Amino acid sequence: MFRKTEEEKAAEEAKKQAEAEARQQAATAAEQQRQAAAFAASPVGQATTAKQQGQQLFQLLLPLAELNGQSSSFGSADNELQNLMQNNVLDEIEKVGWRLERADAVFTETGATSSSRVLQTGEGTVTRGTIYGLYIFRAT
After folding, report:
1. Lateral strand order in the sheet of 123-139
2. Residue 118 has what pLDDT?
3. For residue 115, what are the CA distances in angstroms to 2, 66, 69, 77?
4. C-alpha pair distances (Å), 103 with each of 45, 48, 66, 95, 121
5. Taking the model in full, what pTM does it have?
6. What does the alpha-carbon distance between residue 75 and residue 68 come to, in Å, rounded to a whole number?
């Protein structure tokens, strides 16, 4: 009485399979959109967009390193430099159709701590900040 026919079972299975395929396609499309958005936000993606828009100059600011440190109760200053360089970014931008015109570096201080030395005169200072590379490209 309540048993499904073979045709109903086959139709139900086909519906389940179609729904699973639709979910997989939606997940694939969402991942492709995420990757496209990540590329557009990247330095190379920004350079590509600027080139497509016909801009003649493209300016880029990239963090190169962070200077961090902790002061101690003895007044010493222990600074640590952490490398943040992104290899091949400039090369990839030139492959998109830009030529590097100028490169500069700037240090932006985000904080500093000074403390008096216990066994010596003077102070120990710890500086925190980021070193940025400023790059200007010209369209080729």
Report:
1. 77-83, 57-71, 123-139, 98-116
2. 61
3. 84, 21, 13, 9
4. 19, 19, 18, 17, 40
5. 0.69
6. 16
